[in-house]
Structure formats: C-alpha cells, structure tokens
Amino acid sequence: MSTSTGSPVALITGGATGIGAAAARQLLDAGHKVAVTGRREQRLRAFAEELGRPEGLLTIVGDAAQYADVQSAVDSTLKAFGRLDTVVSNAGFATHDTVADGDPAGWTEMVLTNVLGPALLIRASVDALKETRGRIVLVGSVAGFVNGPGNIYGATKWAVTGLAENTRRQVTEFGIGVTLIAPGRVETPFWDGNGLPPGHLLTADQLAESIVWAIRRPEGVDVNTVVVRPIGQPN
Length: 235
Known about the structure:
The protein is 40% helix and 17% strand.
C-alpha cells in the first residue's frame, strides 16, 4: 500500500455512540478523517446525520468480533482515505452480572467482543499502520486493574490490559505506538437498562479527550497506559 499525504485517518470500532462517537467528533474537529463501525446501520446513519454528513466521515456496518467484518472495515477505510494512522478498539459491552449467579447465555458474545475484537482489529490493521508508523488505541477499563467480586466483564478488561502490553512489545519495532485508555465510570449507553452507578461520572467527551490526546502525541512518543477516573471514584 502506498501512503498518500493529507489528513491523518482514524478507524474507530463501536463509533456511533458513547465514547467512540465522542472521539470521532473530536478527531473530525481536529482535522482527521474518521471511519466508524457499528452493528446497527440505523444508528450509524443517525450519527452521520447528527454531524451533517461530513466528507471526512465514513460509516461502516460490521461486527467487531468477526474478522471478515473487521478486515473489510480496514479495507474500506484505506479505499476511501488512502491511508490509516490510528485504530481505536472501542467496541465492547458488559452483561452486568457475576460468575456465581449470572446468565451464561450472554457471556460468549461479551468475551468475543471485548477480548477477541481488539485482537482482530490489530491483526487487520497492522500492515497499514506499519506504513504510517501509526498508533493503536485500546479502550480498556479500570476494571482491568481492580478486582471486583465475580466480575466477568472485569476479567475481559484484564485481558485487554495484557493484550495492550503484549502488542506493544511486538509492534514497537515497526514504529507503531500502543496506548491503553482505561476509564473509570463514564456516563454512556454502557449503563442502559441497569441504572447509573452512584457518584460523579465522566462524560463521554471528557474521556474522549484522553483518547485524542494520546493519538496526537509527537512522532516517536509512545504513551502506553492512561487510567482516567472521575474525581470521587475510590476504586
């Protein structure tokens, strides 16, 4: 692939709502071109309409846990914009139950999306990122650093914490940076149907600022782990 000159390009999975959408908006405002993926075409269309269908935005329907969809998203981004500078693995969700009393029916999809999904995005994009000496951003969680009773979602984020450093140790020789952004409690659709937790929460825009900050570090600078909690969150 020949890398064209021009605006930097980012691909964000799960980019139509919440943290992903906030990061997409901020990157577009900063002059990036942005591709976002999601499983629901209607939601992607609504996001594009909300932003006025800017030329620098590409929406792609696909499942972050299916390699064919992820590879297709990378290929579509390269075809549309000619290069790829950053991938943001943001797609993920929680079943909000525990290992001792939860419903196993929901666990497979959660594990595949939260753990396999980031690995598939790395695999699909690494060749393009070698060309631009780009960056990989994985959205993890404070739950990937702090144990919670029976927390299966937390276990998936512990896996993302490990994946970030394992990936960094391999791709740093290619000139690719890797950043793990680990948010605390953020007010997003993540909590839909379960009620917001008590106390102060970050907004999606506040957390997205950390993602954009990491992406825009100077060439040669590799910021590896950023934990972002709202003030007042003890764990």
